[in-house]
Amino acid sequence: MLKTLLAIALATCALTTQANEASVKKAVEAKLGGKVTSVTKTDYLGLYEIYFDGNILYTDEKLSVFIGGNLIDPKTMKNVTEERMLKLSAVKFSELPLQQAIKQVRGDGKRILVTFEDPNCGYCKRLHKELRALDNATIYTMLLPVLSEDSFKKSKIIWCSADRAKSWNDWMIDDKAPTGKDDCDTTAISKNMAFAQKYRIQGTPTIFFADGERIPGAMPLAKIEEKLNSKLK
After folding, report:
1. I need a labelling partner for 160 at 20 to 30 A (CA). Which of 21, 78, 179, 216 fits?
2. How far, in Å, CA of 160 to CA of 180, rounded?
3. Taking the model in full, what pTM does it have?
4. Phi/psi class of residue 113: alpha, beta or left (left: φ > 0; alpha: ψ in -120 to 50)?
5. What is the mean pLDDT of residues 180-204?
6. Which is nearest to 156 in space by CA: 118, 206, 199, 122?
7. Which of 42, 63, 88 is the last residue of a domain?
């Protein structure tokens, strides 16, 4: 009997929370004048998490105030906002346009890593120097020339190379500037830029793992290895 009453109470609480989230979502959309992706009740101060236009805001049930910035759990000192943003900004792996990438297979190629990179990005170069030691992985590099006109020119030459992976590595690792023609079909680069705009990929490098998890910025190899191995389990 007690278990039944507890189950009913939990179900009622869940329904109430869902109704409140829907009510807050409607009110926020009216206030902001746009579609809200999601509203989720948090465990902190009665606040609701608002995911809107690729950003997280917080508000209460009455919309007394909108709060931007990071929410930190005082018990664990974890950045709750950062963790939620990683989850909310994930992309289904099947939606990543891998046919528009430079593909490199190392060893058995079982572990999958996808990066969006600009050839003139210093952090991207640092990342690739780290990735030299990565084995048993398939690396998909999406050219995303967002820093300058020269980035776009280099990207086109690399994409038009007979050996794209070699041309890319020569430049990113050994600083050998790409040479050759840039007059092949480079629509893949334009498509990458459109994809990045759609999914708000705003900086390079941006890393995706096989489960769609997104990591903005470069990562040390040890952390990449840890995440790649965890995706195989």
Report:
1. 216
2. 8
3. 0.74
4. beta
5. 92
6. 118
7. 88
